[in-house]
Amino acid sequence: MRISKQTKKTTLAQQGRYLLICLLSMLLLFLAGSVLILNRTQRQVYEQLEEISKLYTDELDNRFFRISRNLLSTVMDRTNPDSAFWKYMDLMEKDQYEEYVITQLRRNYVSAAWDFGTDYNVFLYTKKDESLYQLSISSDGLYAVDPYLQEALKRRIKSLSQQAYAVKKKWTVMCQGDDIYMLKVAQSQGVGLGCYVNLKTILEPFSELSLGKSGYVSLVNQNGKSIGTLTEKGIVTDNSKINTGNYTFRQELSQAPFEIRIKISWTGVLNLMTGSVFALLGVAFLMVIAGSVLLFHLETKILKPVGMFMENLQKYDNGDLTYQMSEGNLVELEQIDDKFRNMIHQIRRLKITLYEQELEKQKIEMDYLKIQIRPHFYMNCLNFIYSMIDFGQYDHAKSMSRITSDYLAYIFRNTSEMVPVTAETNHCENYLKILLLRYPEKFTYYFEVHEEVENAVIFPFLIQVFVENAAKHALTLEQAVRKMTALPARALRLRHKGVIAEGMDADLCVFDPAQLRENGDYRCPCRMASGLDAVLVAGQPAVIHDTLTGAHAGTVIRRELI
After folding, report:
1. Which of 26, 43, 368, 522 is 20 to 30 A (C-alpha) from 241?
2. Which residues contact 299 (CB under 8 A, 6 or more apart)?
3. Cβ atoms 471, 435 nearer than 8 A
4. What is the value of pTM for the model shown?
5. Mean pLDDT of the residues in the chain
């Protein structure tokens, strides 16, 4: 007998409070999730920006190195008789070839604009007459050099060591007015070949990064002093208000005497996403406010009238059928009140009629159950008794007559609406005894009645239908074993299961059918069955004489193609 669980009942007001609590919980979870998403997104943005800045820094360092190598290899090739540069320098010693030499060198350095860009300016310096010539074409398509910049370059070259160019020497910083330049010069025998680039050219690519309001990109020398800084407003030369010690990450240059420090302001980078999150938060708050307003309206306009309706409805238990249940302004409650009054009157008129009809129905059902005895079953019992007497089986004939008499007496003499469970089981046992006398040793049976229902009463012939069906459609032991082993194993495509044969899994169950019993009930469903001599899983004993051995040889079963 199944016992239904008693669920806790709640009112509409409680359900409304639960809804509000759920909304608040969802809001808190939303806030926590938003914070986690922002932190994770911030880290990802930092990582991506750091990777982008590293790629550009590596490219910048590689460009410095290639320019330095070009300058070094050209100037230090003096001993090579095939050196075109030094041949031009020898011709330049003659004043009449100066213009020709410069023209040829400019043609040779046309490719520098493609290799390094037009912002990297290659020049030639001769110490003899302190002349400086622009060799690479500039961004405006000319070879002219600003006179002030030209003088600054000459002063810087003079201040450099007169020794031959060394690859270990890094690019130097040179200031000219408000502009800052990076300079590299290779000198030998009074001839200098160099390259300079404006610091703005180095910083401008970083303007594509989303630095934010307080973010910056700064070039800091070995002494920690900022050479130039790029902010969201552009390149600034006044670095006094910028703390370059507070940075997000930095990139070092091997070919220049400074490093690049970058600070990313997350408020600027995540401005759009933060706005979206705050918009979602606003929607969540609006939902909570709307839910609160809805609950207030539900409390005042619906729950309160419904509560009064329920209180008035309780008064009907005292027989006051004239009481007005609905006192609110809800049309639906007034309609329910009218319909309920009509229903009460109809129920009172039909109550007795329905009760009498139910009694008549039960009587008809009882009579129908009594005539369920098929004439051929009664005639077969009489013929079987006659055959027993004819063959001299007087003891069997005597038992058959007594059992058949008790069986039919219970059917025709029982007039009670309810019968004890023991009486019903005795009647079913008489039916099974008749079958055993007719078909000896064809089946076995036993009855088990729990103490909880031993003294209970049920409708007559309620169990008999199930017993008859079980007797008619019962399986043999072999059929039952096959349906529990080989048949499901084949249906589930378990190739090594379900059959006792060589090469199959040794999953065996040894039992005595006469002793096998199920000991579990609805109170203790996990009780061990009795009558199990042995249970083997993968060849290892799991149960011996109804006792668990503690072995765990089972594995996960997977389907296989058969």
Report:
1. 43
2. 13, 16
3. yes
4. 0.46
5. 77
